[in-house]
Amino acid sequence: MSVLVIGAGGAVGKRLVGALAARGERIVAVDRAPELPDSLKSKVTHVETNVDVRDFYSMNRIFKRHRFVHTVWNLAAPLSVETALNPSVAEQVTINGMRNVLWAMYEARIPKIMFTDSIGSFGATAPRENCTARWLTENPAQDPGSDYGRQKRGVRRLLQEFWRTGGDPRWAVLPGVLHSEASWGNGTTEYALEALLAAAKGEEFVCKVDLDVQLPMIYVDDLMRGLLALQDAEAPRLREPERGSSSTKSGCMCQTSSILLNWTRT
To answer: Residue 15 and residue 25: Cα distance in Å, rounded?
Structure first.
């Protein structure tokens, strides 16, 4: 049995493939790029490249070729800045892409789908403390305040429908991710990493937030442990409604951190 990772060459996908391979999983790597990064090729069992989740027939063919899949990770979604620059394309990839994936999974009788949501799903009316994934499911009409958040909400609705038809959808709400790589992607918390790079070079950095603001962050290794724990968890342990999990909550997301960054504001 294998794990199929859609978006294997992306920011989260690369680290997830590494974490899955480290524990001996057979991995089917799917990506829209013409080839996978060299660092991933030795870690996967099968590779499917030049794949667009917006094309249902491509997704359907992949699931027919790889029948022995026990879990699907759909990480095919633009980051927040990319979504803001082209929301219509982002919607096609994020929502229509997920719809295609779920329909192909339904036909292939594969029940477990994993999805990474974002704290961008929480709008201005969300509580500032002790706010878990439960709040999103209990307040489905709240406005996230961005196309990015609204598209994540659209995906959660699709996952809810998949659950009602007997599927096993699971999703995690991710905060900003800290890591040791030189670059990651166009996320709204990239400035935190830019600040650390500037500090390492002895350069001045203009902070975009006030000094006393706590930023919800998680280190990438902790994130990987949490995502794998969510994948592996027995169904009775998933207490959040609609099987969502938040990184601000202990349990499936394991160790988390909120970091007070003492930068100088100029």
So the answer is: 14
